[in-house]
Amino acid sequence: MTETTSGSARSSRSKDGNAEKAEKAVKTTRTAKPGKGLRIERIHTTPGTHPYDEVVWERRDVVMTNWRDGSVNFEQRGVEFPDFWSVNAVNIVTSKYFRGAVGSASRENSLKQLIDRVVKTYRAAGEEHGYFASPADAEIFEHELAYALLHQIFSFNSPVWFNVGTAQPQQVSACFILSVDDSMDSILDWYKEEGMIFKGGSGAGLNLSRIRSSKELLSSGGNASGPVSFMRGADASAGTIKSGGATRRAAKMVVLDVDHPDVEAFIETKVKEEEKIRALRDAGFDMDLGGEDITSVQYQNANNSVRVNDEFMKAVENGEKFGLRARLTGEVIEEVDAKSLFRKLAEAAWACADPGIQYDDVINHWHTSPESGRITASNPCSEYMHLDNSSCNLASLNLMKFLRDDDQGNQSFDAERFAKVVELVITAMDISICFADFPTQKIGETTRAFRQLGIGYANLGALLMATGHAYDSDGGRALAGAITSLMTGTSYRRSAELAAVVGPYDGYARNADAHKRVMKQHADANAVATRMDDLDTPVWAAATEAWQDVIRLGEKNGFRNAQASVLAPTGTIGLMMDCDTTGVEPDLALVKFKKLVGGGSMQIVNNTVPKALKRLGYQPEQVEAIVAHIAEHGNVIDAPVLKPQHYEVFDCAMGERAISPMGHVRMMAAAQPFLSGAISKTVNMPESATVEEIEEIYFEGWKLGLKALAIYRDNCKVGQPLSAKKKEEEKKAGQPAAPAEVEKVVEYRPVRKRLPKGRPGLTTSFTVGGAEGYMTANSYPDDGLGEVFLKMSKQGSTLAGMMDAFSIAVSVGLQYGVPLETYVSKFTNMRFEPAGLTDDPDVRMAQSIVDYIFRRLALDFLPFETRSALGIHSAEERQRHLDTGSYEPEGEDVDVEGLAQSAPRQVEPPKQSPARGTQDAAEQPSPRLAHNSTELLEIQQGLNADAPLCFSCGTKMRRAGSCYVCEGCGSTSGCS
């Protein structure tokens, strides 16, 4: 088949020698014979139509500023994107991934150019290396890959978008593992190799356990320095490179084995530095995150992990002694109490969140290539674990794209289409190793020999909520396990098919028995996994079939890849795909921050919430009432008509109903048996958590078969900003007040603006729970609502009198300048009788007469953006949301002029009336502004998100796995 669409960007490639051979080859299926090429199946595309021609494109202006000083960080106008891409996704892709000097003619200005640059490179390499049965299959591959990227179904990791198809080295891997031996040459090579990887914006990890301890002798007779001392030099190097102007910090992981004689010093490195931070802060130095003086603190640029083995964990369990061994001879040079050492590990994690823990025997039990070396380390975020001096390129699928709703409102996960997309993505990822460049020769050699891949997913938390599953539930874990098993099983099946076409990985022959053993372990875990409901059972069935094919085809063909899957943080690429949640994480909060075209912003209730309520059986009127409650309170506690047993479905990572730490651990355990690598995730713990609870988490992680685990206790870092609640508590506890030199306060008194004699009005009759009434709303000719009259019951009755008084009070407030939005936010969701069904199609159910009145006023007098943020929509808008997933009017530009004037959205408690304001100005705190979902949550909940500030735009970052990502500009602290 040849391409029929016009345009040079979509012209067919001329056939080279390999493509001509592939065209003559017999087209094959899953039982392909060596050298015959893959037959590529269509998933989403239509023959004769290019995916670009099936969407509506529009031009947008991208202007990104630093909110601290108002400076413009980035500007590019007239960029071209599909109309369904969010403002945030457009901003991040334009600023991060478009290549070429800004302002030059060579600068990319369309998503088409970006996707073509990558996809056409992959197709050309696939044809050159004999991956496709014919040019027609190569074209289908190109179109399907372009469609999936265009529609945000999956994304490659950032280095692919940075480098592929450009003149610079085509590095496709984000994750690297280095090695260091017990020699000065090797240690200096480590510094250099790590620095080059940091320079390229990626991260690296390594194990220092080969270096002699400070308790051992050198050949010259003196004591060795020990690995902790050499960590100091590497940390300084990473800090220097980080501060050299890059938009992301250097990411690194340092691992030390639990039997290393210097393990206690390693555990205590960061604890001692935290004590130093406290002392310097008390002396007046700037020790906040990003502060001028924080650079004097050591060991802060790495994640530290202790590698424990089963021998040690059993010694902890039984209260036994454990031997620390010399590095060169392996003899025990010191015995320690295992429980005491484990306690020190937990105490350090309690004090400063480091070190994490890695379970050595579990990791190597699932190792497909043990004959080529043990797995000793991981990448910085702990999801990639394989041989030393190797790398892994990542890609992640957007799980929400595979959730189906039928006409009857039933949900299902499209396992068949999911498997087909996994096959497509794995094929592309393996092709990339054929042309990829690597930072060192050793890494290139190992990666080409073992071809490690890291397919994963994002939006699991959103998927579970949308399907009515609590994150910490058997049903949620069953669905997560089924999807993970299907993903990895399908990946290895495609890897076996690729082995039949282009051969197994070079190291396979030596490791064949071990690789096949690990495949059987995955299949066995799949067979005994618990099936829970109608959503996960079909996915388990598809996974079972995939693993059966893996065993059969692997025995015949071998495997193309030594590993296939990991669960990465999906920071920047998660934002690129407009995902609500990253990696395996739950939702951060139920209300998030949305950027609008034109520069404005608004807070909205996550779209997964209405889906979840529908799945749980709530009617549209009930859904609207619950969503309105969430919009106002940020949580579901006491939401109208919501059953308490359904609260857990809406539990989030932070807030009033935060998921328990063990809930996070159990979710990791549900996915781990079905992953080649590990999971990037940090278990958040409350500030009140004890050392014993951390010990329990680390011990249960071992019992449940995890490969790695890290915890973070709220407010354990000295350098992190205090939460709003803590600041208030400190002020009440007698903290020093502001200086006495305060400017004289001029009392402000509002002026009443009366309506003219002739004013436009709107009279509405209504019925709430059987009670009838009339409302007359009069407005200024050009400036909104000015007065309200309510008539209910007979003249002279108590109810009629109270309604008259209430009407006068509201009307006078409106004329003195109280915004209608304030009244609406305060009086909607008030509950008292009469309540129930109404005769208004836009407000089908009301919690009270007052609730109905202000919902009706909002619909009649507030702009769409304002009332949408409050969860108030008309019947037409609700139907549009069910049909299209959007409340916004079709074919209309959203009026954000007013919002843009005050963007970013100011979120603060309702202010006291100015007429009553006699409080001293020095006591009135400046209103805090929210610039993203993390800061919005902090303001709503009065808590701290435990995240650093973005180096690029200054906003609070949000956690993504073991790393952090900035929602505003896409910068990350890790390697995804």
From TrEMBL:
Span of domain Ribonucleotide reductase large subunit C-terminal? 173-712
Cofactor(s) for this UniProt protein: adenosylcob(III)alamin
Q: Where is this region: Disordered?
A: 1-37, 903-927
Q: Which domain of life is it from?
A: Bacteria
The reaction(s) catalysed by this protein are: a 2'-deoxyribonucleoside 5'-diphosphate + [thioredoxin]-disulfide + H2O = a ribonucleoside 5'-diphosphate + [thioredoxin]-dithiol
Q: Does the keyword DNA damage apply?
A: no
Q: Name one Pfam family in it.
A: Ribonuc_red_2_N
Comp. bias (Basic and acidic residues): 13-26
| One GO molecular-function entry | ribonucleoside-diphosphate reductase activity, thioredoxin disulfide as acceptor
Keyword Transmembrane (UniProt): no
Give start and end of each TSCPD domain.
759-859
Q: Which Gene3D superfamilies match?
A: 3.20.70.20
Enumerate composition-biased segments (Polar residues): 1-11
Catalytic EC class: oxidoreductase
Entry EC number(s): 1.17.4.1
Tell me where in this chain the Ribonucleotide reductase class II vitamin B12-dependent N-terminal domain is found.
Answer: 62-152
Q: Provide this UniProt record's keywords sorted from A to Z.
A: Cobalamin, Cobalt, Disulfide bond, DNA synthesis, Nucleotide-binding, Oxidoreductase
Q: What does this protein do?
A: Catalyzes the reduction of ribonucleotides to deoxyribonucleotides. May function to provide a pool of deoxyribonucleotide precursors for DNA repair during oxygen limitation and/or for immediate growth after restoration of oxygen.
Q: Which family does it belong to?
A: Belongs to the ribonucleoside diphosphate reductase class-2 family.
Report what the protein is called: Vitamin B12-dependent ribonucleotide reductase
Q: What is the lineage of its organism?
A: Bacteria, Bacillati, Actinomycetota, Actinomycetes, Kitasatosporales
